[in-house]
Amino acid sequence: MWYKKPEWRKVFTGVPEEIDPDSYVVATYYLTPKQGVSYEGAAIAIAAEESIGTWTEVKTLKDRILKLAAKVFMVKEVDGSAIAKIAFPLDLFDVDAGISHLLSIVAGNLFGLGDLKSVKLLDMHLPKDYVKAFKGPKFGIPGVRSIVGTLNNPRPHLGTIVKPKVGLNPEETAEVAYEAAIGGVDLIKDDETLTSQKFCPLPDRVTKVMEALDRVKEETGRTVLYAVDVTADYNMLWKNVEEALDHGANCIMVDVLCVGFPALRALAEDPSVKVPIHVHRTMHAAMTRSPVQGIHMMVLAKLVRLAGGDQLHTGTARGKMERPLVGTKSLLDEYSGVRGIRAINDFLRSEWYGLKTVLPVASGGLHPMLVPINLKLLGSPDIQLNAGGGIHGHPWGTRAGAMAMRQAIDAYMKGIPLEEYAKDHPELREALRHWGRKYME
What we know:
Elements: H1 6-9, E1 24-33, H2 39-49, E2 71-78, E3 81-89, H3 98-106, E4 116-125, H4 128-131, H5 140-148, E5 157-161, H6 170-183, E6 187-189, H7 202-220, E7 225-229, H8 234-246, E8 251-255, H9 256-259, H10 261-269, E9 277-280, H11 285-288, E10 294-295, H12 297-307, E11 311-313, H13 337-349, E12 359-363, H14 371-378, E13 384-387, H15 389-392, H16 398-414, H17 418-422, H18 426-435
């Protein structure tokens, strides 16, 4: 390739001191070169392809265009592969074109480059001026807490997913919601495969569920959110949103990788959408699961925050999904395993050029025995634990299951072992007896 010539390699390389974080988008990649290609050569291939390069020298490349070249400024070997940092000049990006254009550069053609055996986009730094072009979440953690009533007494939130995933009619869905809400959950959500099928039309479902939650409000004084899944192609997405809000929905949910980041941004920035947006990450593992190929969840989390999600599923330390990898004691440690999930959660809860925070959600196979380990490793109190089977699978039913999960959260926050707390809390005691130690793994 022409950019491998010494005179051109200089165009696509730099040193850390030259990279002004306010003037560059910096992407971090984990790459494995094809045989015969150096680590630096593989990184330069990305920098060239995603900025001003092509497969051969072209006569149209003017000197003034060279300042738009991406620059490789760090390459470090990691167990036969390498972590590379590449700085893309901010002028490369059409900020008004948003996330769609951003992805076309930092996550574009590079995944198919011939010089690479594999490559994974691990992270990206976005300059202040780029981030501030976005409005971000409308509510954030404080806004969600204000609605639920936990702003002045922060604790981990508890959510549930209506189970089975699909098949219940609106009346049955509302009954499940009522029992879960009375039991103590803060949020009830549709599963990611339920929208407005014939057996459970969205308008009827929202009406029945919100009526049930109104009864809970009257009986307990508590406000419980219902995240209605509005995921659909663009024209139907807005129809679903309109119907959900018209029938009283106090929260909506989108499968962000199915509808796209621009759709999430449009929802979050629309003044008529005056409810929090719960973001599901279904399909994410197609990009995130491989340790060597794809896109890391940290990148997706940053995009969700830019686009305006108020809550985001980020993973569990223990649960039913693939167990996070153990750290490798290398440069990859901060991106791997539970440490990687914790880093994502900490980012969502931290200051980011004035954008509101996002509530991390741990979901997938949780039950009361797994509450302490997840809260310890993933951080609390600003986190939400979602339990589906771990609530509805309780031997005494949904209400008792929700009570047991809340009791497990309370026990952790008070520093009391579950077995000790369960002596005076029969719902938790029954949950521990039912699931047992075998479900800790």
